[in-house]
Each structure stands twice: as structure tokens, then as C-alpha cells.
């Protein structure tokens, strides 16, 4: 049996194991290791895999991952989410769909201090949903806007997915983090505008609350409480942008800054610090397991010629750039229904990254496009992790079907972001290019 046949059979076996509900990481590791043992002598396979695995996962840039995760966990205890929501309510509470708009913008602000959409959804499920329920918002709108606005956390830096993409594709993590700023703001504006338009067309679905204080004194008072988020964002991203610090160094500064803010707010307890470190360690372990398993599986597919064969086949179709992008969007919409973001990245990057490079496009630009598509996957059924986290946070008081239904319009809004970034790549590349010019 030739190596290509072994690779294709291994890939098919992986799909079967995934459909049988085996965890993605275990499936990639089992198939990859088993396949390598068939391709190479047993002693060579067992020697090659551990050395390569250690070399791949000991990349120092990966230290930014646990640090950004810890920074986001500590930001929660610093009450940055609550302060952001109070400020957004005071500034946007009187516009049509004001509470929904406030949820979008406060999620964006919280995203500047956290890199996980799941954290944002968990926070604002407790903060924003009860307020919209008291204001008699349409349940689907209230649930959908919180689940979808959480997606901004993976776009607006610091972003765990951006770091992960940078490691896999060997792209500058610093440029990727900076590249997400403008698309993140654009997506937030599109979401907020969508909520406002819907509220104008259906006033009863998003009534303006008479209890909101939107006076200038309230606006200024809440704005003052955002100093913490502003300083943290400026220090972390500013140091990366100017080249003063690498992403992992900036992440370390962010952790210290978040811990300091928790102390200043009077929320610092040993139990909270202990939970933050343990929770961050669990998430980091999961990510590294996927990263290591993905390396084994990708090495197997590459060694057997599956990657080069599939890449060559797609090139042979002689697709235009626009046809290629449509195919990529459709692919990620499909995969997002069944796989988590990191698994999708591990599986698709070895094939898609060379195609994008051959098309003359920047991998930094493609990274932001990919992250938006990954974010869409967090709110589409049946996997939709954001929606399940919200259901877990709110319990039996809400229906999972209502969360998915409420999130659907925001899928189209994020696809508009992808379309705009494809037509106008400068939306993504402008800040990274300025960053390079400054150095």
C-alpha cells in the first residue's frame, strides 16, 4: 500500500472517529501516531514524534496563550465588564434598541481585556440579559445579541485565536493582534447598527427603558470608571504596536495590570486568584493538547502526501480568487457546525495557507478572515459553544432554540464584515503596515 493511500485512509478514519464522538485531540493523535508507525519503522516513529512534538510546543511565543487567558479571567474580577456595560447604557440607552447596542459596545470594551468569547458570554449573560428582560425586550433579540457580541472578544486583541493562528502559520503574532482592531470595531458597529434598525422597525421588540439615566453627569461618571480598561488596553497593545514589547512580554504585563486592578477594586482574595490560575491552566492544557495532536496529525498527512495532493487538486481547478474565497467561507460555515475553532484551524491551515499565499494575499489578512469565520461557528447550531455557555449560565429560564434563532441575524452581519475585508483588504492590513513602517 502506497503512502498516499495510507494517508487518505487515515483521514477517513479520523472523520469516522469524530462522528463517533471521540474527542478531536485524541482522534488526531491516534490516527497520526498509528499512521506514522505504518509509514516509518517503529523505532523511527517513536523517536521522531516526541522530538518534533517537544520542539513544536516549546515555542516561546506560545507563552502568550496562558498569559492572555489569565489576563481575561482576572479582568472579570476587576468588574471591567460591569463598568463597560454601565457606561454603554448611559451613552446609548436612549437610542432604539439601546440596551442591545450597549451590550455590543460593552462586549467590545471587555474584549480589549479578554481573549475568549466564552468568557464574555458568561459575563454578559448575567449582566445584560436580566436588564433586557426587565425592559420587555424580545427574548430572541436579548439572547442573540449577547451570544453574538461575545464573538468580538476573539477579534479585538488580545485574542487567543490570533495567537494560535500565528503559531500554526508562522505569522507575526504582534501584527495579527494589531490587525484585529479595525475589523473588530467594524463588526461591533455593524452589530449595533443592525440592532438599532431592527428596533426602529419593531419598537415593541426593544422598548426604551424609562429607568435609564442618560444625563451628561451619568455619562461622565460611568466614563470615568473605564480608566482601568483603557489603561490595560493601551499598555498591552501599545507596547506591541510600538515594538517596545513582544506579544508574550505584553501579555505578562497585562496579567500584572489585571491583578493590580482586581486589588484596586477591592476584589482580590486568595480564592479568586487560585480559581483564576486553575481555570487558566485547564484551558491552556486543552489548547496545548489540541496543538500537539494537530502537529502529529498534520505531520502524518504531510508525510503521506495528502496535503500536497489536496492543495495541488484545488490549484488544478484554476479557481479565481473570489471563487476560492466563497469556497473557504462555505467550508468554514460547514465545519463550524461540528468543530471548535482550534480544531478547524489545525485541520485546514496546512491546505489553505499555501493557497492564500499563492493567490498573493497576506497571511495576516487571512488570519483575521479566518478568526471571523471561527467566531461565526461559535453561534451556529448544533455545536455553537457560545449558545451552550449562555444556556448553562441562564439555566431553564431560556430556550436553547431561542438563543440560536436570535443569533442567526448576526451571522449575516459578520459575513458582511468578511465581504468588506475581502473587497477592501486595507481594513485589515492598514494598522499592521503602519506598525512595520514605525519600526
Describe this structure in words.
With 439 residues, the chain is mostly helical. It has one domain. 77% of the residues lie in helices and 0% in strands. The protein contains 22 helices and no strands. The mean pLDDT is 86.
Can you give me a brief rundown of this structure?
This protein has 439 residues and is an all-alpha fold. The protein has 22 helices and no strands.
Query: What overall form do the CA principal axes indicate?
Result: globular
- Work out the helix count: 22
Structural class: mainly alpha
Span between termini? 53 Å
String of helices and strands:
HHHHHHHHHHHHHHHHHHHHHH
Mind telling me the C-alpha Rg? 22 Å
Features:
single chain; 439 residues; mainly alpha; 22 helices; globular
Blueprint of the fold:
Blueprint lengths: L2 H17 L4 H16 L2 H16 L6 H14 L2 H13 L5 H14 L5 H18 L4 H11 L10 H10 L3 H7 L1 H21 L14 H9 L2 H16 L4 H18 L5 H34 L2 H11 L4 H15 L5 H18 L4 H15 L7 H10 L5 H24 L2 H13 L1
Helix pairs in contact: 1-2, 2-3, 2-15, 3-15, 4-14, 4-15, 5-6, 5-12, 6-7, 6-8, 6-11, 7-8, 7-20, 8-21, 9-10, 9-18, 9-19, 10-22, 11-21, 13-14, 15-18, 16-18, 17-19, 18-19, 19-21
Amino acid at each position: 500500500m502506497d503512502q498516499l493511500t495510507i494517508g487518505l485512509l487515515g483521514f477517513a478514519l479520523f472523520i469516522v472517529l469524530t462522528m463517533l464522538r471521540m474527542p478531536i485531540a485524541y482522534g488526531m493523535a491516534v490516527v497520526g501516531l498509528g499512521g506514522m508507525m505504518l509509514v516509518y519503522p517503529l523505532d523511527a516513529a517513536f523517536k521522531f514524534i516526541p522530538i518534533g512534538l517537544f520542539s513544536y510546543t516549546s515555542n516561546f511565543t506560545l507563552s502568550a496563550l496562558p498569559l492572555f487567558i489569565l489576563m481575561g479571567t482576572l479582568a472579570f474580577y476587576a468588574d471591567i465588564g460591569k463598568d463597560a456595560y454601565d457606561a454603554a447604557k448611559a451613552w446609548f440607552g436612549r437610542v432604539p434598541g439601546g440596551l442591545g447596542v450597549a451590550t455590543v459596545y460593552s462586549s467590545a470594551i471587555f474584549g480589549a481585556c479578554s481573549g475568549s468569547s466564552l468568557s464574555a458570554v458568561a459575563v454578559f449573560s448575567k449582566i445584560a440579559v436580566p436588564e433586557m428582560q426587565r425592559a420587555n425586550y424580545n427574548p430572541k433579540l436579548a439572547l442573540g445579541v449577547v451570544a453574538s457580541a461575545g464573538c468580538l472578544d476573539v477579534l479585538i486583541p488580545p485574542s487567543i485565536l490570533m495567537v494560535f493562528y500565528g503559531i500554526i502559520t508562522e505569522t507575526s503574532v504582534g501584527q495579527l493582534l494589531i490587525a484585529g482592531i479595525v475589523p473588530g470595531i467594524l463588526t461591533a458597529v455593524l452589530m449595533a447598527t443592525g440592532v438599532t434598525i431592527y428596533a426602529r422597525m419593531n419598537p415593541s421588540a426593544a422598548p426604551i427603558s424609562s429607568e435609564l439615566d442618560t444625563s451628561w453627569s451619568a455619562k461622565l461618571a460611568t466614563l470615568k470608571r473605564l480608566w482601568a480598561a483603557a489603561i490595560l488596553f493601551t499598555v498591552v497593545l501599545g507596547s506591541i504596536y510600538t515594538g517596545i514589547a513582544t506579544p508574550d512580554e505584553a501579555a505578562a504585563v497585562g496579567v500584572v495590570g489585571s491583578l493590580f486592578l482586581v486589588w484596586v477594586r477591592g476584589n482580590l482574595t486568595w480564592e479568586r486568584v487560585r480559581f483564576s490560575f486553575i481555570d487558566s491552566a485547564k484551558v491552556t492544557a486543552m489548547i496545548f493538547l489540541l496543538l500537539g495532536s494537530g502537529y502529529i496529525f498534520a505531520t502524518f498527512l504531510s508525510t503521506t502526501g495528502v496535503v500536497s495532493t489536496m492543495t495541488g487538486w484545488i490549484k488544478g481547478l484554476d479557481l479565481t480568487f473570489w471563487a476560492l474565497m466563497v469556497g473557504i467561507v462555505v467550508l468554514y460555515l460547514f465545519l463550524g457546525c461540528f468543530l471548535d475553532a482550534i480544531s478547524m484551524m489545525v485541520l485546514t491551515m496546512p491546505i489553505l495557507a499555501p493557497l492564500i499565499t499563492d493567490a498573493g494575499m497576506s497571511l495576516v489578512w487571512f488570519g483575521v478572515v479566518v478568526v471571523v469565520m471561527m467566531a461565526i461557528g461559535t453561534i451556529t447550531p448544533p455545536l455553537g459553544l457560545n449558545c451552550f455557555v449562555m444556556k448553562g449560565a441562564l439555566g431553564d429560564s431560556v430556550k436553547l432554540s431561542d438563543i440560536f434563532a436570535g443569533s442567526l441575524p448576526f451571522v449575516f452581519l459578520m459575513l458582511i464584515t468578511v465581504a468588506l475585508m475581502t473587497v477592501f483588504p486595507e481594513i485589515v492590513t492598514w494598522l499592521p503596515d503602519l506598525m512595520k513602517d514605525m519600526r
